[in-house]
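hey so u asked for the seq, here:
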Amino acid sequence: MKGDRNNKRSRKIALFLSSFKLLSSWQGTLTVIGVVFSIFLVGLTCFFGIDRSKDSTQLVAFSQGSDAYYERLDEVRDEYDAEEKEFSELIITSTFTIMQTNIEGFTYDDMSEARMREVADLMLDEVEHEDGTYTYTAKGEEAVKESLASYFKSVDSSLEDVTCTRMAQDVYDYVNDYLEFIGAEKEDNMGDGCLSTGNTQASIFLDMSTDEYIATMGPIAQADFSRNDVFASVTLAQSIIESGWGKSGLTQQANNMFGIKCSSNWDGECINMETGEYGSSGYYTTDSNFRKYNSIEDSVNDHSLFLKENPRYPNAGVFDATTYQEQIRAIHNAGYATDPNYSSTIINTIEMYDLDKWDVPVNVSSDLCYTGEGQWTIRTIAPSSSDAAFTRKSSNRGQCVWYAQARAYEVALELASKGTITDEQAASIGDKLFSIYGDAGVWVERSSGTFRTSTNINDLQAGAIISWTKSGGYGHVAFIEEVTDDSVTITEGWATNTNSCPNDWSCINFNMKTMTLDEFYNSFGPYYSGSYDFSGYIFPLEG
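ran it, structure tokens below
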């Protein structure tokens, strides 16, 4: 894509999306959409020395000189990618901006490819593995700041040490300021990750069964829980009761799932509807103006913001609650509903439909809906009897091997439903998976004649099963859901206090974990939980 300027800019955005590194915990809160705009906005400042106090008009000014800078940056990035080294264009560009504003006469021409490499190397740790190979991973924020301070001094020896330290901090402050600016611009668009956004319309609920409704609303409520701290089970149960499983007139006409009324601080559209209230004389009907939303996702988000931004709910302990029971009672006590039985109704609904299984936080700060090129949906809750792949074998239900087998088979079935592989291929993968027996620690050995396997930890890839051994005990396996340039996401399942739970789905423990590559290669992968040693990978999706 070396053609016109628009194509170059598209390539820069794509490159940045795939190369941004989780150098510190605050960077883990980036949204994908925020990253796209960050490369644009931060890059523009390189040629103007824009002060962080500038207004938004100045922040989005465009520079005709940006292409030359980014062409150099692209070349360096390609070099680092070829060597499988971590690379953060955002930190490099921000470092240059700080140098430009603190070192007299320093221009974008001075930021050569060699300087870009120097800054990139400051962010890397070289890890040697037992097999003699090396992995280059990102340092933490404090380590990078220390390296940057020394680097600034080497570039301009006239700088005071305290100035260099301040400049290193400024790099991160500079990035944060842009991310905050972008976050404010995107707040109304709910840009907090693909699980929390969407354009679901209430009309889809009309022909849905209760199970289908929960399956549709579950991920939306779960993402909202991760973002806004309202238990997914509470959101789900409230939506069921308030909207009549999404079929009420208000919900159908206004996408309003919770009966939230218009108020003085609501600047959106309203709709007048008849509603039931509870007073001293019992139930009665009245007309009220209710909020109208563009989508179900907007309604769920506004429901949480309604609770967060009205002081009486935080003051009542809504966001201090550690269980869904505590939270809904606090919501009720703060005056959310006039029905004296409201909180018990919500709790009974949660328990009747096992809605608390959705009370598992998920990462909504990056695009974790799909792995690879949108191939499969990441599992975010424990499997249940409604998940066909997990019902194929029950003799060892709840064991980690059972989970990994069934999860890999479930992904194969999803790939087949999307036409990525054939139904016959999916069936074959399932047959092979469930033909393998034995302790998790010997699974790589037992699978070697059936699937491709590897004992090299650097062969990490999505769709693999990772195995660990334990001296004197059973091993462990997990399924690798996603691998990006920044992170690894795994899921695993096991039984509670028993070897298996063939007749009790509630005894299944489930965990979804996202970690940086550094965490994976230096701790989680080689030494799971400190007592399990890496055994190898199995690649069932390759057939």
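DSSP finds 20 helices and eleven strands in the chain. The radius of gyration is 26 Å.
lmk if thats what u needed
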